[in-house]
């Protein structure tokens, strides 16, 4: 393998320019490096010196301004798929977890009798909202997978899903807190093991969704600008 040179500088600049999931980004950068090294070796066999061969390979490959947008598009698709999968799986599981809590909580019948009039509509509305978000996550997962060839701007699908997550999560959290603390719950609910588990699961899923959505927003913000060395 060649020592640090034009190809290494080019690949380093590409890596710094791209924003997205670590593993897909590493795969893309490694693929670019391998292609450049192969091209440089072929040019060396044709009689060029190593430095000239690397420079010619980079020039033939294209400048970062030309190459980075296409690579960033691929990363935005990968990030969008990841977020869509998280939403599609985590939202229904969160709803199911809290349903299990109320199904097996020993004092649930007494709690039902004490529900204020607004409680059931808000609870049903939260369930419908979560189902809606989960279905949109599934639709985005399909669009960024098998439906990719029919989408002209998949970057917008990724960004729209990320904005949806950031918009809906505060609403669902607010409704959830309203249901939890909007009236006097049974004293033992907060210490009930299934309730603690559901709360922990909700926290993990919420953090994961926000993290993935933030990565998607970062990766689709604007046309990538080559980073300075």
Supply the helix-strand structural class: mainly alpha
Distance between the termini: 22 Å
Helical stretch tally: 8
Tell me the domain tally.
2
Secondary structure tally: strands: 0
Shape: elongated
Major beta sheet, specifics?
none
Average pLDDT, rounded to a whole number, is 85
Give the % helix.
Answer: over 70%
User: What portion of the residues fall into strands of 2 or more residues?
Assistant: under 5%
Radius of gyration: 25 Å
Low-confidence stretches: none
How would you sum up this structure in a few lines?
The chain contains eight helices and no strands. It is mainly α and 229 residues long.
Describe the model:
The chain is mostly helical. It folds into 2 domains: 6-62, no CATH class; 78-219. The chain is 77% helix and 0% strand. The chain is elongated. The protein starts with 5 loop residues before the first helix and ends in a 10-residue tail after the last helix.
């Amino acid at each position: 393998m060649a020592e640090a040179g034009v190809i290494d500088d080019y690949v380093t600049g590409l890596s710094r320019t791209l924003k997205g999931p670590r593993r897909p980004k590493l795969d893309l950068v490694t693929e670019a490096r391998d292609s450049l090294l192969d091209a440089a070796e072929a040019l060396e066999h044709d009689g060029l010196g190593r430095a000239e061969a690397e420079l010619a390979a980079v020039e033939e490959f294209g400048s970062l301004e030309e190459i980075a947008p296409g690579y960033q598009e691929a990363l935005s698709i990968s990030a969008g798929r990841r977020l869509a999968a998280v939403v599609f799986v985590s939202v229904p599981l969160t709803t199911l977890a809290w349903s299990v809590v109320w199904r097996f909580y020993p004092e649930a019948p007494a709690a039902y009798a004490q529900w204020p009039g607004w409680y059931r509509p808000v609870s049903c509305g939260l369930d419908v909202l979560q189902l809606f978000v989960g279905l949109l996550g599934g639709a985005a997962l399909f669009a960024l997978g098998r439906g990719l060839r029919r989408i002209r701007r998949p970057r917008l699908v990724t960004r729209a899903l990320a904005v949806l997550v950031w918009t809906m999560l505060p609403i669902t959290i607010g409704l959830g807190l309203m249901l939890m603390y909007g009236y006097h719950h049974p004293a033992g609910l907060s210490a009930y093991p299934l309730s603690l588990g559901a709360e922990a699961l909700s926290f993990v899923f919420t953090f994961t969704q926000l993290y993935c959505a933030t990565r998607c927003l970062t990766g689709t913000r604007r046309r990538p600008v080559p980073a300075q060395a």
